[in-house]
Amino acid sequence: MSETSGATHLQEVTAFWQKALGEQIDRWDGIVGQLGKLETKGFEQVCSNIDEAARLAKESTAYANLLTAQWRKLAVDSTRQALDLFGAKPTV
Questions:
Q1: Can you spell out the DSSP letters for 34-71?
Q2: What b/e readout covers 5-15, taking b as 16+ CB neighbours within 10 angstroms?
Q3: Each residue of 22-41: pLDDT tens digit?
Q4: Can you tell me the distance from the alpha carbon of 40 to that of 57, in angstroms, rounded to the nearest whole number?
Q5: Which pLDDT belongs to residue 92?
Q6: Mapping DSSP to helix (H, G, I), strand (E, B) and coil, where does residue 19 land?
Q7: pTM of the model as a whole
Q8: How far apart are CA 2 and CA 50, in angstroms?
Q9: Is 83 within 8 Å of 89 (Cβ atoms)?
Q10: Which pLDDT score is estimated for 7?
């Protein structure tokens, strides 16, 4: 084998590997890009879930506050009715 033929063969092998590595890097770049899109969608979903949980917590707290207010009113009304039943007059 002559030196020129050996050098040409080496250039062909080098070109083949450079092409193969370039294609692999392009594939890897595509995969990483897709992972980035999935990560962004996941982040958006987590933020949405947090917002929904906060909304539900606020609504639950407001409902609990309403229930306790109604309970207090019922307790006072029941006490007044019981006093009226026994003939006692509230001093308030």
A1: HHHHHHHHHHHHHHHHHHHHHHHHHHHHHHHHHHHHHH
A2: eeeeeeeeeee
A3: 999 999 999 999 999 999 99
A4: 26
A5: 59
A6: helix
A7: 0.58
A8: 71
A9: yes
A10: 83
